[in-house]
C-alpha cells in the first residue's frame, strides 16, 4: 500500500522542524550556560551567534507549523489576526536573521584583518556599538514589516487564481494600494544592503585566507603549523554559513517570485517555499558546531555539570 505524498511531505516538514528547533535550542542553551556560569569564556561574537540562534528558532516555528498543519489537512487554522501575527513575526525574525548573519560576517572579517589594515581601527570601535546594532536590527525589521499587518488576511478559498502572495492559511488583501511601491522598495533595499555586505566581507575573508596560505606555503619553518588556527577555522565556518545563506536566499526568492506571478497557485509549491526558507535556520547550528572545539568542549562541560547536579540530588546532597 502506497503512502500518500502529502503524508510523506508532512513527515519531512515535521522532521525538519524537530531537527531545526532542537539544534538551535541546544546551542542556544549552551551559550546561555557560558554567559551565566562561565562568563570569563564569553566573547563578543557569542552575543551575535546567540541572537542568530534565537531568530532561527522563531523563524522555523512561525514558518513550519502552519505549513505542517496545512499539509496534514488542517483547514482554517488561522484567522485574520492569526495570519497577521504569524506572518509579521516570521518576516521580522527572518529579517533579523539576515542582519545578524551579515553582522557575524563583518565581525569575523574585522577580527582577522591585519593590524596594519585600514579596517584595524574597527576592532576597538566594534564592541561598543555591537549591542545597539543587535537591538536596532529588531526595531528596523519591525518598522519595515509593520505594513504586513495591513495587507494580510486569512484565505477564504484554497483554490486561488491570480497574482499575489499566498501562504498556507493567508493571502495578501490587495496589491494596488499606493503604499505597495514603498513597502517593496524598503524590503529590497534592506535585503540588498545586508546581502551585499555579506558577499563583500566574505570575499575579503577569502582573500585574507588565500594570502595567508600562500605565505605559509612558501615559508619553510617549523614555527608554521600545518593545523589551522581557531580564527581561520571560525572564518571558514562563517564563510560556509554565508555561502549557504546567499544560495538559499536567492533560491527562495526565485521560488517566491514564480509563485507570486503564477496564474494558478500550486499548494505543494507553498510548502516547498516554507521548507526552503527554513533550511538555513535548520542547518545553521550544525554548521556553527562544525570544526568548533570550543563548542564541543563546552557541551561536555555543560553535560558534566548536569550529571553532577543530578547525582547530588539523587544522594540528597
Question: Level of helix content?
Answer: over 70%
Count the strands?
A: 2
Strand order in the largest sheet: 1-2
Number of helices: 10
Largest sheet: 2 strands, antiparallel
Shape: globular
Low-confidence stretches: 220-227
Task: Outline the structure in words.
There is one protein chain. This protein has ten helices and two strands. It has 317 residues and is mostly helical. The termini are far apart.
Question: How would you summarize the topology of this molecule?
Answer:
Blueprint: H1 5-37, H2 44-71, H3 80-112, H4 122-145, H5 147-151, E1 152-154, E2 170-172, H6 180-218, H7 230-261, H8 267-277, H9 279-289, H10 293-314
Antiparallel strand pairs: 1-2
Helix pairs in contact: 1-2, 1-9, 1-10, 2-3, 2-4, 2-8, 2-9, 3-4, 3-6, 3-7, 6-7, 7-8, 7-9
Amino acid at each position: 500500500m502506497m503512502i500518500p505524498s502529502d503524508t510523506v511531505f508532512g513527515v519531512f516538514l515535521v522532521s525538519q522542524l524537530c531537527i531545526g528547533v532542537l539544534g538551535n535550542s541546544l546551542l542556544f542553551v549552551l551559550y546561555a550556560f557560558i554567559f551565566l556560569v562561565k562568563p570569563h569564556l564569553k566573547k563578543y561574537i557569542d552575543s551575535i551567534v546567540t541572537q542568530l540562534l534565537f531568530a532561527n528558532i522563531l523563524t522555523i516555528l512561525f514558518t513550519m507549523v502552519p505549513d505542517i498543519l496545512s499539509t496534514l489537512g488542517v483547514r482554517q487554522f488561522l484567522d485574520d489576526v492569526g495570519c497577521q501575527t504569524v506572518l509579521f513575526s516570521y518576516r521580522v525574525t527572518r529579517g533579523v536573521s539576515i542582519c545578524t548573519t551579515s553582522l557575524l560576517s563583518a565581525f569575523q572579517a574585522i577580527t582577522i584583518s591585519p593590524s596594519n589594515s585600514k579596517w584595524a581601527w574597527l576592532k576597538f570601535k566594534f564592541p561598543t556599538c555591537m549591542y545597539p546594532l543587535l537591538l536596532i536590527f529588531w526595531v528596523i525589521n519591525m518598522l519595515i514589516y509593520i505594513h504586513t499587518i495591513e495587507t494580510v488576511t486569512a484565505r477564504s478559498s484554497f483554490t486561488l487564481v491570480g497574482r499575489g502572495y499566498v501562504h498556507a492559511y493567508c493571502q495578501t488583501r490587495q496589491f494596488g494600494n499606493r503604499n505597495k511601491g514603498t513597502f517593496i522598495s524598503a524590503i529590497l533595499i534592506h535585503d540588498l544592503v545586508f546581502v551585499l555586505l555579506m558577499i563583500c566581507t566574505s570575499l575579503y575573508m577569502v582573500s585574507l585566507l588565500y594570502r595567508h596560505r600562500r605565505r605559509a606555503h612558501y615559508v619553510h619553518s617549523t614555527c608554521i603549523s600545518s593545523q589551522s588556527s581557531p580564527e581561520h577555522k571560525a572564518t571558514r565556518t562563517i564563510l560556509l554559513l554565508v555561502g549557504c545563506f546567499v544560495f538559499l536566499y536567492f533560491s527562495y526568492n526565485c521560488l517566491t517570485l514564480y509563485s507570486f506571478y503564477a496564474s494558478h497557485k500550486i499548494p505543494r509549491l507553498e510548502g516547498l517555499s516554507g521548507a526552503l526558507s527554513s533550511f538555513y535556520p535548520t542547518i545553521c547550528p550544525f554548521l556553527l558546531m562544525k570544526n568548533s572545539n570550543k563548542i564541543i568542549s563546552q557541551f561536555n562541560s555543560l553535560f558534566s555539570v548536569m550529571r553532577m547536579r543530578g547525582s547530588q540530588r539523587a544522594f540528597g546532597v
